[in-house]
Amino acid sequence: MGLTFSALLIIFFLCIGELWPPVHVQALTEEVRSEHSGPNAHVMEPDIQINLRYITTDIMFYDDTPLEIALLYQIICDMPPGTPPGIDCIVTLNGQADGCEVSNIDEIVFTYQVETSLFSISVWVPPDIPAWSVIPVVISGNYEVTPGTSDGQVPPKIDVITVPPFGCLQLSAEPRDWKPPVGKWMEMDLTLINLANTEDVVQIDLFKNDPNVEVRLPEDIIKVRKGEMTKVSFAARQRSGLPTKNKFTLRAKSSHQGLNATVYCELVFETTLSSSSVIRGPLLYVTAGSILFLALLVTMIVVFILRRRRNKRTALVQYGQ
After folding, report:
1. Would you give the end-to-end CA distance of the chain in angstroms?
2. Is the peptide bond before 85 cis (omega within 30 degrees of 0)?
3. Taking the C-alpha atoms of 95, 98, 99 and 102 in order, what is their torsion angle to the nearest 10 degrees?
4. Residue 243 and residue 287 in contact, taking contact as beta carbons nearer than 8 Å
5. Is 236 in contact with 187 (CB distance < 8 Å)?
6. DSSP assignment, residue 61?
7. From the CB of residue 177, how many other CB atoms can be counted at a distance below 10 Å?
8. What is the 3-state secondary structure (H, E, C) of 200-233?
9. Which of 95, 233, 295, 308 lies 20 to 30 Å from 43 when distance is taken between CA atoms?
10. Which of 147, 114, 110 is nearest to 36 (CA)?
């Protein structure tokens, strides 16, 4: 009766050890584990939902880079009732889009029961995919509930994006410098290339500073197919006056948005003096050297005439004497 409760408990466990060897204890432990992890175990399967919030498109790009379309998603992870604290759900996702590159998605961790998170992806659409194309975007992946209770696949989320049209032009002129005679038309072909993903209607404008220069641009509205290169006829002349040097600025403007939707090309227009236009009516066209020669010739003639007059006077005076 003098034994304490602790001493009796020690004696009880010693007797258990004699009657029930350690191998039996291990078997019982494995049986208990199988009850919690077998078909009848309480598996914590989360309810995961992915919803598309909105889509944004960045069309401010260069002709050698793809079109970027960004998609923002909301993901909800609802753990079953009775989930104890300390249970986490780790979600790993990836995105796919036909013919396009898709950015990576960071791992998402839900800490306890219901939790909401946001993630986004970028889809880069190559320029060779035509405008108004419909591209499926699929978000899929896996989840794991830790510590080690369950894992599985996330129900795939399928949405579609529509490729918007964008403008992308190239405008050039060769040669950039040309020297027509005064009064004569000089023609040049401008090269216009449509690098966009759709047909475009391009507005051509020309800006000049000299009102004495006349410009002829037969076509100011041009329809260009996707990937097409076309030639634009352009002509200019200086109506009259001495040769001058002018600059023209041509502008090609797309009907769509884009970083290269409006492009410019600068031309230098310099005139020369033609032989056929040296004398035209009462107007005399001369160069600086000709002016100097004429001035010297007039001076010599005047001096010669004055000398002859002076000599005649001298002769008359001598004769009168």
Report:
1. 188
2. no
3. -10
4. no
5. no
6. -
7. 9
8. EEEEEEEECCCCCEEEECCCCEEEECCCCEEEEE
9. 95
10. 147
The total of other beta-carbon atoms located within 10 Å of residue 125's CB is 23
Name the amino acid, one letter, at 217: L
Residues 6+ apart with CB under 8 A from 188: 173, 175, 178, 234, 235, 267
Structural domains of the chain sorted by starting position, each given as residue range(s) with its CATH number in brackets? 47-162 (2.60.40), 169-277 (2.60.40.10)
Secondary structure class of 92 (helix, strand, coil): strand
What is d(CA 172, CA 189) in angstroms, rounded to the nearest whole number? Answer: 9
Q: Which residue has the tokens 């944004």?
A: 56
Length of the chain: 321
Question: Rounded to an integer, what distance in angstroms lies between the CA atom of residue 99 and that of residue 130?
Answer: 12
Buried b (16+ CB within 10 A) or exposed e, 185-212: eeebebebbbbbbbbbebebebebebee
Sheet containing 200-207: which strands, arranged edge to edge?
177-178, 262-270, 245-253, 200-207, 221-224
262-317: pLDDT as tens digits: 889 888 777 787 655 444 433 444 444 566 677 788 888 877 787 777 776 666 55
Q: Which strand (E) or helix (H) includes residue 74?
A: strand 67-78
d(CA 70, CA 55): 6
Which band of pLDDT confidence, cut at 50, 70 and 90, is reported for residue 49? Answer: very high
